Amino acid sequence: MRFKTGIILILFFTIHLCGSSILRAQKSPEAYRQGIEFIEEGDSLKGLSMWEENIQYNSQNFDPRISFKFIEIVTESKKYSYYQKASETYLKAWNQNNIDLGKWVDVYEQELARLKPIVETNRYKRWEKLLEKEDSVLLSEVKGFWVEKDLTPTQPGNERLLEHWERIAFARKKFTLNKDTVYGTDDRGVIYVRYGEPTRKEEGILTFDEGMASYWISTLLEYRTIVYGTSPADIYEQISNYTQFKVRKLSRFNFKPKYEVWIYNSFNTKRDDLLILFGDRPHGGFSKLKAPDDLINPGAFYDVDRSRRFSIPGGLVYQLLYYEQLRNVHYLFEDRYLSILNKFEFQAGSTDRMTAKIMRFKNESEFMFMEEEFPREGTSYIREGLNTPVKLGYYRTLRKNNLPQVLLVNYVQTQSAIEHWAFYDKKVLPNRAFYLKNTLQFFDENWTKKADFSVRSDIKSSHFSSFDEPEFNRTTFEVPYLNYLKKGRLKIASELYVKNRSSEIDTSSNSILPQNLISSNTQTVLFPEPLSTDTSKLEISDLIIGFESDDDTKINERIPFVTHPQNKIPDDENLHL
Questions:
Q1: pTM confidence score
Q2: Which residues contact 534 (CB under 8 A, 6 or more apart)?
């Protein structure tokens, strides 16, 4: 993301304007309230400008409400020229040096509630405890959460943070069947904030098909009669009478619930897809579902016919009907349908109502386990295929002056990202040039950035075969052991760009990333324990394994041979240590 501003330096007017701004800020102890008044009157730019001045000149009396409202207003109205400032302003609210946490506990409690849907459960519980203790460590941890999520650390603004607030704004406008969530939306709003627009949506109404129910009940009872022995001469008449009775009884539980299925297939997990279900519960209205079974009237699960010769659990009939109607939406519904059908055939004459409840538990478990395998949240900008595969190698050594260091090797496999970009953008790979920008950032324990530097490498496009051994771009960083890294972090960003393409953002495409960025990957790591510098103790440095290469681009003076992320050595190459 790039935001350009022109700067004209005229000494007299600069001093005059700054002095005026300071006076205005000092005379505005109720800046938050005044800004809200301007916005409610329809002059959002005036409100934002006043808040911007207040933040700049009142850093000692920082009001975090301004930070949270600033980014909300900017992203809601898509004022792109303010995006960088909105991102910076939000993160200032999590700066330990600015905030009296005890004074603003209620404000931070509300913001943590807005973060809860996208944060892992254990991490959120820790944040709650820190807030309860008014521990300022909370501020640095939330700041670190967003620093780690930043998609392109070398560009101004935090795209993932801005995307998060854009999603909140969209959800508040779109998903309004109720306002039961922290965002003032129905449950679809929470999922939208977590994952964005689904890859595919399916919606409809589930019905009780009396004809299909009659067919299944009568056919299965007849089958069971034949398989399990002789019966009275009037058995078929009894089956017919029971079938009519059962269908009439079960039809009373039918309320034609609406449903929506959201399907995401852009996450790098063991499962292909993530399915999220919504629908009209019999009691409780439209909400997120554990499984389609939640749409069945609870009375059907308690339905048995103990006084009759035959008895089929009503819940099982409804499960069979509903999953049959959903089987073409996704193969997971097909699998569950076949499981229910198998159970139905086996229990066709049973009076055990627990059969349907057990199947419900199994169905709910299947969807629950699926959701747990997926990340808590995800960006819509860079997903599978457009997320550059990256591996890191750590090698602890000593410098020539006997001070400890780490050789950090960043292995980036650009092949798949380039091919995906070419496929989706319908670009021809020959005659296309790319460059890879690897950046290493240093943060202290409070997530204050201390330093960063970047290395740029040109990438040539060629025709790749899926059977080829992937090629890795290797960038080696020589990282000295610095005091602030003892409890700090290293963040490595790998950004792949196409040459000869605009680096500006294209607001018409609703993207806040540079147009020439085609993939990105970031990783955050702790600095490993350094080697001892005590000359009286023997300690061996980490082993570096590699092989020779005639290609000078694959080696460097720090590691004078080629290394591989899995320590692989080609059959025709000699091992080097």
A1: 0.85
A2: none
